[in-house]
Amino acid sequence: MRKAYFSSLVMVAALLVATIIGCSSDDPKQDYNPLIDDPKQPEQPAEPDDSPSGRSEQYRPQVHFTPAKNWMNDPNGMVYLDGTYHLFYQYNPQGNQWGNMSWGHATSTDLIHWTEQAVALTRDELGDIFSGSAVIDKDNTAGFGANAMVALYTSASGAQQQSLAYSTDGGKTFTRYAGNPVIKNDDDNLRDPKVFWHEQSGQWVMALAKGWKMGVEFYGSTDLKSWRHLSTFFMPLAGRPNLQWECPDLIPLNLNSQSSNLNSQKWVLLVSVNPGGPILGSGTMYFTGQFDGTTFTADDRDYPLWLDYGMDNYVGVTWSNTGNRKVMIGWMNNWQYAGDVPCSPWRSAMTLPRELTLTEYDGKPLLCSTVISEIDQIADAWQPVNFNSQTSNLNSTDAYQLRIKLSLDKNSTITLSNTNDERFTIDINAAARTLTAHRTAQSGKTSFNGTFSIPSMQAPLNVTGNSVTLDLFVDQSSVEIFTQEGTMSMTNLVFPQSIYNQLTVTGADHEAQVRQLKSIWK
Ligand code: FRU
Asked: Which of 196, 399, 472, 479 is 20 to 30 Å apart from 352, CA to CA?
């Protein structure tokens, strides 16, 4: 792996501050310039080698997307067209560490089963292909043809500039626009364009993250090729003075609210930050507010608000062209240790896709996420969990969903374990209405990186009433926890020798059911 070093005083200062507050980042992207550091251009990738191993190695997720081999980070260019969901992603076609950044590509008709496609974009004379988005230009505003798929991405060399490429064969092949870059820039803190059509102002709007300079720039265009600056959004975050803002997404959501004081339509701005997430390293925050076609104005409330309270849900953004339905997928990893997770020949998985909704909680809009209902397609029937003995066998081999209803009159502890006595423990504090998960050295392999073991990570349950129902999605190397309504989510990687297939619940009255999830690769 190319180990890179901070070069500017600003970055050194940022690292010092981050280290002091316990948020050091082992981010291999610092100061890397592909055109200088690695001038050899990659060969054009061949068709993907889809299943060298049948995706059945130890730790290989069975119901989450992973590339057959090599490194993956951010989801990119997610767009729906003619019955197919496209998922592009930051990909190294040549190895399983970060580098040679390209857009890998996978497709699905149900957001659950994925087929890996040929790599879509590899770096060129403008630099690596960093994160970005894709839209369907149904009215041919750009002149590439009606319904062209237009990808906007960051060309990263020393500078981060915005470029575009288009496909007129449904995402199979892309042509780079001759006028690239479409937004010129001379520093390395402007990236990850997320573009959407804003009906009210009749224009395309692009959100761009400002990296270490923090904040989001908005640009507007009527043809996707020439862009004018609209506005800048920034909000200082208490206790988080120096971090990178990355991968923004601005989406409208209808607010499910009882109160007439709250507007029924809101705009939600997602921004991922690193280091400085809810616990350590990477995390995704959100702002609620209004967007008038020029400026995003955040509601006056305490920030940061977190999309997910675990360690491993980063840079999630939503699919384009899905109408009012907003489906997000995140990178299930953390820059804190992403290069060290014990996975080979692939490295990194995506989260399960999640539907985002906005609901009123405690008088304010709360962003909720639940696993998409398409998961039912790989689910067996629900079976009650038999609690006759203290520890119940869940009889799972690939993956499963567990639904546990707990009374909130007492504290409870949920333990997922396996026969090697590896365990992942979750405490529910009834009075405080919090959930605290423990990913300690007992959870499985943690020694690959000194920061992977996290003694406790806490989240508010955000439920009223006298019980809570939790949905847990457990795969070979992840545990995703949700309240049933999606008012809280917590996503974590774990590396037990074999899947946790035992459940113990102590404390308050409880009932549980489990359904097996069938591997998406078999
Ligand atoms: C976020 C990120 C993006 C960038 C990409 C490079 O994880 O740093 O800001 O475009 O990764 O791979």
From this structure: 196
Bridge partners, residue 152, by sequence? 133, 164
Instruction: Please list, in sequence order, all residues whose beta carbon lies within 8 angstroms of the beta carbon of residue 518, skipping any fewer than 6 positions away.
Output: 63, 378, 379, 380, 398
Instruction: Please work out whether the CB of residue 247 comes within 6 Å of at least one atom of ligand 1.
Output: yes
Q: What is the CA radius of gyration of the chain?
A: 22
Least confident of 249-258, 304-313, 323-332, 427-436: 249-258
Is the pTM for the entire model greater than 0.70? yes
Q: Give the tens place of pLDDT for each residue, 26-40.
A: 677 776 777 666 655
In tens, the pLDDT along 355-409 reads 999 999 999 999 999 999 999 999 999 999 998 888 999 999 999 999 999 999 9
Q: Atom of ligand 1 at shortest distance to CA of 192?
A: 10
Q: Rounded CA gap, 120 and 191, in Å?
A: 19
Task: Compute the distance from residue 130 Cα to the ligand 1 centre, in Å.
Answer: 6
346 strand-pairing partners: 70
154 lines ligand 1 (CB under 6 A): yes
Tokens of 132: 């970005």
Ligand 1 pocket: which of 246, 272, 333 to mutate (most atoms <8 Å of CB)? 246
Residue 74 CA: nearest ligand 1 atom is 7
pLDDT at residue 49, rounded to an integer = 53
pLDDT surpassing 80 at residue 332: yes
In this structure, the number of other CB atoms found within 10 A of the CB of residue 392 comes to 18
Residue 94 Cα to ligand 1 middle (Å): 18
H-helix segments, 197-241: none
Helix, strand or coil, per DSSP, at residue 518: coil
Does residue 192 line the site of ligand 1, with CB under 6 A? yes
DSSP-based three-state secondary structure for 450: coil
Residue type for position 183: I
Distance (Å) of CA 78 to CA 61, 105, 153, 284, 498? 21, 10, 12, 18, 32
- Residue 250 CA to ligand 1 center (angstroms) comes to 18
Which ligand 1 atom is the nearest neighbour of the CA of 246?
Answer: 9
